[in-house]
Amino acid sequence: MINNEEIRLVGLRRNPNEPLGMTVQVDDNGNLLVARILTGGLIAEQGTLHVGDVILEVNGYPVGSPEMLQERIAYSKESITFKVAPAKEDNIQESHEYATNVAKQNGVKSVCYMRALFNYNPMEDTLLPCKEIGLEFQHGDVLEIVNQNDPNWWQAIRVGWNGPAGLIPSQELEERRKAFVAPDADYVHKIGICGTRISKKKKKIKYQSKANNDYDKAELMLYEEVTRMPPFKRRTLALVGSQGVGRRTLKNRLINSNVDKFGTVIPYTSRPQRDYEDNGKCYWFVDRETMENDIRNHKFFEYGEHKGHIYGTTLDSIREVINDGKMCVLDCSPAALKVLHNSSEFMPYVIFIAAPGMEQLKTLHNYGRGSRSMMFDRQSSIRFSSQRARTLQSLQTMFEEEDLLRMVEESACLQRTYEKYIDYVIVNEDHDETFRKVVQQLETLSSEHQWVPVNWVY
Questions:
Q1: The CATH number, out of the four listed (3.20.20.80, 3.40.50.300, 3.40.50.1370, 3.40.1160.10), of the domain defined by the range 230-261+326-371+393-449
Q2: Cβ(355)–Cβ(398) under 8 Å?
Q3: pLDDT of residue 187
């Protein structure tokens, strides 16, 4: 029951087409309630409307539905006057999922910070209650989450941006969308202006899966909780990329440039030691049974089998480099990045060495071959002008271009698949320039604050 003595008028002015920064819902009694107030929005800054307030009129016109509210606000342009009844305790409880936002306005700290691991454009989201109050972000952006109570839509502010809070899809909603999990309830109800919800009672949908491991296997990471740290040196540097893109060359150049700062590991193998090989120089040679036993005991960082022999890198060998006060440089498989990333012990900085375009790749390929003999030599006994020579040259060129094209395609695929673990991407168009960029990025880590996974700190 609304007490007429408590009814008040609330006036505000806005720029043309400026969003008000609120959403509404209809309660069981047919009242139009303020359901959500966005942090940093026009209404939040003025502080004249509150979660749970009942909106009765807009500029003297009664509004009893989201559609009527939408129409009157559109006509109002710059000047708007609301007739409202104050929030009742039961109204606030009806909208309890938005209480965190009210606490934020009163000085309560943010819920958390999240690094986005996908791109989001609210204008393309068919589920978003109101596209105008959605928050666009790119992969890698850090988002300040100010409200997580709604199981489908979080309120967030993009760090480094002075705009108001906006709506982003929650972890649960985006998991269902990207994993194509059939929903057991609708996510947006019936929508009106700026997220108005006409459903009488909100059903909170819990994250459900037959096995959480199913998501883990799919590597479905959408947001990662992070915290801001003062400048510090990472313990490992992981160089990843497609085969032949130049990772090993870059790793060796880094180590040779400063042996006191950089180090690397010597891999283990079950392959028999050859007469000219020294144990512990290029490989540590051990028997297959020992390696298999250590693999079962989770002592290897990564391992694989080639021509019947096991090759691998132990975790202890990485620790030894770190304990010597050096950054351990690894040219590891992208599949091993998860082990590094989830460990506060190794604190990696991951640089993806991307393959350039075909023409640049051909130049790098020829540079890397150096003085090595060609499969086909123009100065060979076969006359270059002969048909057979031209055929051999064409075959050679075709095979080389197929290999290079395969490298480009593999590089793009790896970058998309493991993007969530990558800190920096360098297109290797020039060996010297790539080296300078890597050194520059590592120096930046020692002079600027960093956003790192919370499990590295807590």
A1: 3.40.50.300
A2: no
A3: 45
